[in-house]
Amino acid sequence: MDRESIPQTAGRATVIGLHSSGSTGGQWIALRAQLEPEFRVLTPDLHGHGSGPAWHGFDDDIVAADADRIARLAAGVPGGVHLVGHSYGGAVALRLALYHPESVASVAVYEPVVFRLLFDYHGRRRPTSEVIELAGDLRRRLRCGNIAGAAARFVDYWSGGDGAWRALSVGQQAGIAKCMGVIAAQFTALASGAPLSDYCLLRTPALMLFGSEMRAPIRRIGELLRFASPSALSIQRPMKPVPPVMKIRLPASLGQSAASTALIASRSSARA
């Protein structure tokens, strides 16, 4: 989906699902099934993923470019769109809520990788050093032409340990490997995203979900966001890491929570 605006459908609010790094809009199959037909559900592929546009810009600019592209799609939707984002898609969704609030009715994110918060408030202690080490390792492998090795490192880290990459099908491995150059750019851009002070200004109805069994960087980001955005509903659940694979089905709790957030926000807008 690469249109400049969303054609309006009378009587239905619009939900946009933003996928994680290495995945596609196909990861929202379960969410689409939960929300339709009450909501119109759109699941665009982001830059360098699936059918999304190729990325030829500077590494620092890719998050802003993804957010601006979705903002153009959402422009003109009465009452704004409801955003649901996972990992990188969660970071893009939060950027939209912060800098394009007129286009966003609600936002529900699962473990948004807003790395800037770690660099600003956690120095080089473990949560930040893990991200620095991972990003550096990915770039070294990519420079050596070891794309499969970079993809394996990426998947195994976020999945909680070795073995997740080997468990993927050949097609899934190829899909993630194809994205690794863009994923390295995402790491760069995420390190210079919105500061914590901006999240203190978040006024959009927001739901933030975090798993208690996740990597240290994600747990720390959750703590910082809970501090900065007390008006947002922040929930920690005993969920294991969700590996970045093509057409992944996210935990049902995310779809159910996102649906509730979108439904409440859309009905509140209708009463206003």
Structure in words:
This protein has 272 residues and is an alpha/beta fold. It has a single domain (13-122, 186-271), classed as Alpha/Beta hydrolase fold, catalytic domain (Rossmann fold, 3-Layer(aba) Sandwich), CATH 3.40.50. The chain is 47% helix and 12% strand. It is built from twelve helices and six strands. The protein has a six-stranded parallel sheet with strand order 2-1-3-4-5-6, with helices on both faces. α5 packs across α11 (216-228) and α6 packs across α8.
CATH classification class: Alpha Beta
Described by strand count, sense and barrel closure, the largest sheet is: 6 strands, parallel
State the CATH superfamily name: Alpha/Beta hydrolase fold, catalytic domain
**Global structural class:** alpha/beta
Write the CATH fold name. Rossmann fold
**Radius of gyration of CA atoms, rounded to a whole number:** 17 Å
Mean pLDDT: 84
User: Strand order, biggest sheet?
Assistant: 2-1-3-4-5-6
Q: What is the count of β-strands? A: 6
Number of domains: 1
Indicate the percent of residues in helices: 40-55%
Tally of individual helices: 12
Give the termini separation. 31 Å
So, CATH architecture?
3-Layer(aba) Sandwich
Low-confidence stretches are 246-253, 264-272
What portion of the residues fall into strands of 2 or more residues?
Answer: 5-15%
Secondary-structure element string:
EHEHEHEHHHHHHHEHEH
Shape type? globular
